[in-house]
Design a protein that fits this description.
Helices cover 86% and strands 0% of the residues. The chain is mainly alpha-helical and 116 residues long.
Length: 116
């Protein structure tokens, strides 16, 4: 990442030991490690959000393509994108429907078992 070798790290450690002293050096190392982990987590979240936005843009482009052809003679990738979009829209419109359907399925299954 920074292309720092062993000797550079050793030199930085020795300078840090002289400047901060043996009591404050571990605290400084933990603080820097916390900053670095915070930056890494922030960059990972930004990367995830950008990837999701790009996927959404691709789905919108495929939907526009499908609308232009009046949903006929769709390529497999556009049809798959359309299906994914429809499922996403359905889950947004009825977020608890899947849970309710799953519960109904288990209730009806247990009811049938009790009847037999």
């Amino acid at each position: 990442m920074f292309d720092i070798g062993f000797w550079e790290l050793l030199l930085i450690s020795i300078i840090g030991l002289f400047v901060l002293g043996p009591e404050r050096l571990p605290v400084a190392i933990r603080t820097v490690r916390g900053w670095i982990s915070g930056v890494k987590s922030f960059s990972n979240s930004v990367k995830t959000e950008l990837t999701e936005e790009l996927r959404i843009q691709e789905l919108h482009a495929n939907l526009k393509k499908a609308e232009e052809t009046n949903l006929q003679n769709l390529s497999p990738e556009v049809a798959e994108s359309l299906k994914t979009l429809q499922e996403a829209a359905e889950s947004v419109n009825h977020p608890y429907k899947k849970d309710a359907d799953a519960e109904k399925g288990t209730e009806s299954k247990s009811k049938k078992e009790n009847d037999t």
